[in-house]
Amino acid sequence: MLLCTKNHFIRSLTSTLSGKEGPGSAEERVNLAQERNQRIKDYASDETGRRPGVCVLAWTEPRPVTKNGAALGAGSYTIMVEGVRPKPGQRIVYVDGGFDLFSSGHIEFLRQVVKAEEALGRQAGCDYGPAYVVAGVHDDEVINYWKGVNYPIMNILERGLCVLQCRYVNSVIFSAPFIPSKAFLKGLAFGTPDAIYHGPTAFMPLTYDPYVAAREMGIYREIGNHSFQNVNAGEIVQRILQNRQLYEERQKKKGEKAVGEHAVHLRERMEEEAAALEKERALHRRICSGYG
User: Fold this and answer.
1) Which of 99, 142, 192, 254 has the greatest number of beta carbons closer than 10 A?
2) Peptide bond connecting 210 to the previous residue in cis, omega within 30 degrees of 0
3) 257: exposed, middle or buried (Cβ count in 10 Å: 0-12, 13-18, 19+)
4) Which of 50, 197, 185, 188 lies closest to 111, judged by CA?
5) In sequence order, what are the beta bridge partners of 174?
6) How is 244-268 classified by DSSP, letter by letter?
7) What is the arithmetic mean of pLDDT over 151-163?
8) Are strands 55-60 and 76-81 parallel, antiparallel or unpaired?
9) Residue 106: which residues within 8 A CB-CB, separation 6 or more?
10) Are 239 and 103 a contacting pair, CB within 8 Å?
C-alpha cells in the first residue's frame, strides 16, 4: 500500500474468474479462477455455510464502460451465484460504493438503510424485513479514476467478498456503474428498485450529482450523518501513514536509518497530485456549465 503500486488491480472480474486474465501460466490462471469462484460461493452462503444466502451478480456493458464509470446504455446481468431472492411485495433497495477497506463506516450506513426501511415496513404492516438490499460494487479502474493514487487499496474481488459477509446485504452486483443510468436501474435483475440510498461522502466529494437518474425516477433517498461517517479508506490510510511517520521519527531519534521514508514521501506527493487533478476537473466542469 505504501509503495503506491496498482499491481493488485483487477481489470475485468469476469475475465479473471474465467481464467483469461491474471498472473501466471494458463493453467495457473484457471486453477486460481476456480479457487476464487469457490470462495465467492462460500462467502455467499447463509450463516450455516450450507444453504444459499446472498445472490451474486455481475453487470456487463455491450461496449466498454467510460473511465468515469457511467453506464452508457442497456447492459446485462450475469448470475454468478444463485441466492435467496426477494419475497413477493418486498421492497427492492439499491446502494452502491467502492466499499474499500470495508469498515464500521460502511456497516453503519447499511444498517441505517435497513433501519429506515424497517420504519417504512412497520407503517405498512409488513410481517418480514421490508427491504431487500442490493449492493453495487464499483470496478478498480473506476474508483482509481476518481480517487487517484493507488486506490482502491483492495481489489474488486476482495471488496466484494467483504460486502457479501455483511448481514445487511441480500445481493451483490460486481462491476456496478459509478453513475447508475435509468437503463441500469430499470434492468435490475429483481425489478426496478423502490429506493436508492446514498450516505454522507467525505472521502470522495463530487461537484456533480451521479444520482440524477434516481432523482428523476423519484426513488432517491439519503441517510443522514452518523457516528462512523468519517471512517473510510482515506481516513484509515492516513492513520497508517501517521503512525508510520511517528515510527520513523522514533527511529531517527535512536540514530537509526528511516526505513520506507521514500515510500511515504512518494505517496504524499501522489496524494497532492490527485487533489490538484480533482481541483482542475472541478474548475473545468464549472466552466463547461457556464459558471466559470
Assistant:
1) 99
2) no
3) exposed
4) 197
5) 58, 137
6) HHHHHHHHHHTT---TTHHHHHHHH
7) 94
8) antiparallel
9) 97, 99, 163, 166
10) no
Tell me phi and psi for residue 288, to 5 degrees. -65, -25
Closest CA to 163 of 172, 154, 155: 172
Q: What grid cell was written down for 70? A: 457511467
pLDDT at 289: 56
Residue 268 main-chain phi, psi, to 5 deg: -60, -40
The x, y and z cell numbers of residue 24, run together, are 501466471
| Calpha distance 122→82 (Å, rounded) | 29
Provide the sign of the torsion angle of the four alpha carbons 285, 286, 289, 290, taken in this order: negative
**pLDDT bracket for residue 159 (50, 70, 90):** very high
pLDDT digits (tens, 9 = 90+) for 21-45: 998 999 999 999 999 999 999 999 9
Strand boundaries in the chain, DSSP class E: 55-60, 76-81, 91-97, 131-137, 171-174, 195-198, 220-222
Overall average pLDDT of the 172-193 stretch = 92
Report the alpha-carbon distance of residue 274 to residue 272 in Å, rounded: 5
Beta-bridged to residue 55, according to DSSP, are 171
Q: Residues 42-101: pLDDT tens digits?
A: 999 998 888 999 999 999 876 544 555 565 556 788 999 999 999 988 999 999 999 998
* C-alpha cell belonging to residue 5: 503500486
Q: Are 231 and 104 a contacting pair, CB within 8 Å?
A: yes
| Cβ–Cβ < 8 Å for 18, 28 | no
Confidence of residue 262 (pLDDT cuts 50, 70, 90): low
* Backbone conformation region of residue 166, classed left if phi is above 0, alpha if psi is from -120 to 50, else beta: beta
